[in-house]
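Appendix B, record 7
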Amino acid sequence: MDLSSPTIKSYIELLEDLLLIRSVRPWHRNVGKRNVKSPKIYIRDSGLVHALLNIGDMDDLLNHPILGMSWKGFIIENILSELPKGTEYWYYRTFSGAEIDLFITYKTKVIAIEIKKTLSPKISKGFLISCEDIMATDKYLVYGGSETYPIGGETLAVSLQGILAINEL
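Structure tokens (predicted):
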């Protein structure tokens, strides 16, 4: 694109100010691991993403490579819109691939959230390792289904409605 880093940064800040994108900052305290330190950028309006990509219906969306990122952005926007004041949020990722899509701190809670667009969710070893790194008190996997149930490692699989109904959020 032949743009300098300061120019790109100012464009990203403008898009954030216009509420078109959201930057989720990385958490990178010293836990003895090499962590990713660049923010993740999500377009806040998934409908806008779909329109720009000429995705006309659900079949088009389900077969499109943007599905996973669009789902994550949609879930993150919904969760963050419900958080009380004083809540902080980040994502966590190590260079070895251990990752938490969203983690939230509020009062004494450290909430780890993995987001998967699937009807049969499974937690990854990287998610569990990351939860240990950040000392998560609560662990959730938000998926495309409607039930809430344990899936191992003290993690609950929950729907979007289920995660929004949890009192800690």
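Remarks on this record: The chain has one domain: 5-164. The CA atoms of residues 123 and 148 lie 14 Å apart.
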